[in-house]
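In this supplementary section we document a worked example of the pipeline. Step one takes a protein sequence of length 354 as its only input; no multiple sequence alignment statistics are reported here. Step two produces a three-dimensional model, which step three serialises into C-alpha cells for compact storage. The input and output of this example are shown verbatim.
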Amino acid sequence: MVDITKNIADGSRMAGKQSIIFRNPPYIIAGSSMAGKKEGEGPLGKGFDQVFEDHMVGKKTWEEAESELMKLAAQKVLEKAGLKNSDIRYLIGGDLLGQLIATSFGVAELNIPIFGVYGACSTMGESMLLGAILVEGGYANRVIAITSSHFAGAEKQFRFPLDYGNQRPFSASWTVTGSGAVIIANHKANNKKDNEPDIVITGVTGGKIVDYGIKDSMNMGAAMAPAAFETIKQNFEDFNIKPSYYDQIITGDLGYVGKNILIELLKEKDYDITDRYIDCGIEIYSKDTQDTHAGGSGCACSAITFTSHVLKNLREGVWKRVLFVPTGALLSQVSFNEGNTVPGIAHAVMVEAR
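The serialised model returned by step three reads:
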C-alpha cells in the first residue's frame, strides 16, 4: 500500500502546492439522492432514494421545484443518519441559479447555519472539501454538504426557454434534475450494517480556474476538461502517487467530449487513467435509450451519482479508494452574452473505505 504521508512534513496538513491531507480523516456517515424522472429511467435509477415523476415536484415554478428537491435531500440525509437539524453544526451548499436561490429558499426552514458556495457544477466537490476541512480542523462536529440542479431552470437561465424548441448540438449535455447531500462528521456512522466499512475523506485538492479560451456554452465538456486535468495532475504530484493508487477516478460532468479530452491531456504527462476512469455525466444516462447527446451535467450530476452509485460501491467493497472530481464551467448569462470565454474549475476529494 502506498503511504501518501511519506513526502509530507510530520504533522503538516499541507501537501504539495494545492492539497490537504487529513491526519484524522472525517467520516461520510450518510448520503441522500433525489432525482427527476429522466434520471430515474437511467442506469442508476434504482439506487436513488426517491425519483419524482412530476418535474415540478408539486410546485409552481422550476426554481421552487429545485428548492424542494434540496430540502427533501437534506431531510433524507438526516433521517438516514438518525440525526435532527439541531445536530448539524453547518450546512455548505449551492446551485446554478442566480444568487443561489435554490439553496437559500430550499434549506431556510432547516434553521442550520449555512455557507453558500458557488463552483458551478463542481459545487458538490467544493462543499465536501470545505466541510471536511471544518470537521477535521475541529471547527464542526457534523456538516451537511449539499447541492442541486434542475434541467428546466438551467435551460431557462443559461440557454433558451424550453418553448423555443431550439436544436441542441451533439456536444451539448443534459442538466440533471435532482439534489444530493452527504453528512461529514468527526465520528463513525451509528447505524451502518455489520461488516460495512467506514467511508472517510483522506485528503482534498483544491482547483484553480483554468481557461483554454472555449466560448461555446453548448460544449461544457471541452471547457471543463482542462480544469479536471490540472486538478488531477496536481493531486498526483502533491501526494507523489500514480493513477493506480485509486480504484476509480470519477469526474463530474465532462460527458463523452470532455472525457476524451481529459484522457489525452493526462497521457501527455504520462498518466494513463483509461482503465480506472468514469464520468458521472456518462454513467447517469443511457447512451442507447436516452437522448442526452454528450451526457449529463449540472450540480446534481456528480452529487446524486456519488451519493448513490459511488457510496454503494465503496460500502460493498467493489472499490476501496476513489478520487471524486466534480467539474464546473464558470459562466453566467452576462459573461456569455458579452462574448467572454468559459473558464473551468475542478475540486478533488479523496474518499476511502476502511
